[in-house]
Amino acid sequence: MSTIEPAKIMAEPWDSGVQSPLRVLAPRAATPIVPSGSIAGRSLTAVVAILTFLAAVTAGAVTMLVGSASDWQSAVGREMTIQVRPVTGRDVEADVRAAIAAARGTAGVAEARALSKQDSEALVEPWLGSGLVLGELPIPRLIVVKLASGPTPDVAELRARLAAQVPSASLDDHRGWIDRMHAMADTAVAVGIAMLILVVAVTVLSVSFATRGAMATNRPIIEVLHYVGATDGFVASQFQRHFLVLGFKGGAIGGGVAGLLFGILAALNAWVAGTAGGDEAAALFGSLALGVTGYLVILALIVLMALATAYASRRTVNQTLENIE
Predict the structure, then answer these.
(1) 141, 83 Cβ separation under 8 angstroms
(2) What interhelical angle do 39-77 and 175-217 show, nearest 10?
(3) Is residue 202 a contact partner of residue 51, using CB atoms and an 8 Å limit?
(4) Which of 21, 135, 196, 255 has the greatest number of beta carbons closer than 10 A?
(5) What is the pLDDT of residue 299?
(6) What is the pLDDT of residues 200-211, one digit of tens each?
């Protein structure tokens, strides 16, 4: 196929004085092959916007969840708990003091503090209900052990000391809880990646169908362009440019709405901060602020959607042009 530039042919009149077919099909040099304001184009923009919104909301939620899980793990990982159970024939107060001494004597422990009997009873009251005489129940005493910054203390050594000095005591280093938090965060990330893959796949399929429809509608123009020497790369670039702009518009709309939603959530979180409901929500969900990282992820999603639409369009055009002789 010849590589004559279509723009050059459009600029030069034919020797016979008859107007070029390209001028008939495209009265103005700036007229695109694919109309930018078509109904199909607006519909595809809406589809891309919706898909980008869903992907951005999922990515933002995963980012906040992973950040909150990391904060929880950091806070809980710097503490351990010793539980001293009341046993017949032993003085529970003496056992508590012995357990505190064993904890403080372990390298890496910054502080060991026992909760009072009233505090221990208050911890179980929401589960057992109020109005009970909790003093008659064998409620364990809890000792909060705070770890110093630096090397992690030897948990096995501390357990051995407690077993030798306070047989009724048990040590919880929260390792099981932290492992579950790790698993939950990893699962959330995996779900977010799966959602992103599905969104990109649906976008590629939607753009492919839209591109085939646009090429079917503009087939006579494409054939004339081939006749006058336009290369397949030129035709594909026209469609690619059109769908790149379309994808960026849809991605910007969907990503912008998602960013606005997270901004509103952050403002509401700051507004209710300090209230009972706000404190409970913060304890359960952590901070609802997306942060710089989350907004950068949304921006990356907008760019990804634009590139996905451009890639799908060019790939579909190249495959379709192979069937046009």
Answers:
(1) yes
(2) 170
(3) yes
(4) 255
(5) 93
(6) 888 888 888 888
Give the pair of three-digit tokens for residue 274: 């300090």
Q: Which residue has tokens 């494409």?
A: 222
Please name the helix (run of DSSP H) or strand (run of DSSP E) that holds residue 111, with its range, or none: strand 109-114
Q: Are 62 and 192 in contact (CB under 8 A)?
A: yes
> What distance in Å separates the CA atoms of residue 103 and residue 199, rounded to the nearest whole number?
52
24: Cβ contacts below 8 Å, ≥ 6 apart: none
309 contact partners, CB below 8 Å, separation of at least 6: 48, 203, 207, 243, 244, 246, 247, 250
Neighbours of 22 (CB within 10 A): 20
Pair 243, 310: CB distance under 8 Å: yes
- Please tell me the least confidently modeled range out of 14-28, 101-115, 132-146: 14-28
In this prediction, residue 195 has a pLDDT band, given cuts at 50, 70 and 90, of: confident
User: Is the pLDDT confidence value at 51 over 80?
Assistant: yes
Helix or strand run (H / E) with residue 201:
helix 175-217
pLDDT digits (tens, 9 = 90+) for 121-159: 777 776 666 666 666 677 788 888 888 887 778 888 888
At residue 205's C-alpha, the angle toward residues 201 and 209, to 5°, is 170
Instruction: List all residues 6 or more positions away from 198 whose beta carbon is below 8 Å from its beta carbon.
Output: none
Nearest CA-CA partner of 157 in 165, 92, 149:
165
Q: Alpha-carbon distance 212 to 312, whole Å?
A: 11
Residues 21 and 222: beta-carbon distance below 8 Å: no
DSSP 3-state assignment of 114?
strand
- Distance in angstroms (rounded) separating the CA atoms of residues 211 and 59: 28
Chain-centre distance for alpha carbon 252 = 17
Q: What is the DSSP code string of 143-172?
A: EEEEEPSSSPP-HHHHHHHHHHH-TTEEEE
Cβ-count burial 261-289 (b if 16+ within 10 Å, e if not): ebeeebeebeeeeeeeeeeebbeeebbbb
State how far the Cα of 165 lies from the Cα of 195, in Å rounded to an integer: 53
| The pairing of beta strand 79-84 with beta strand 141-147 | antiparallel
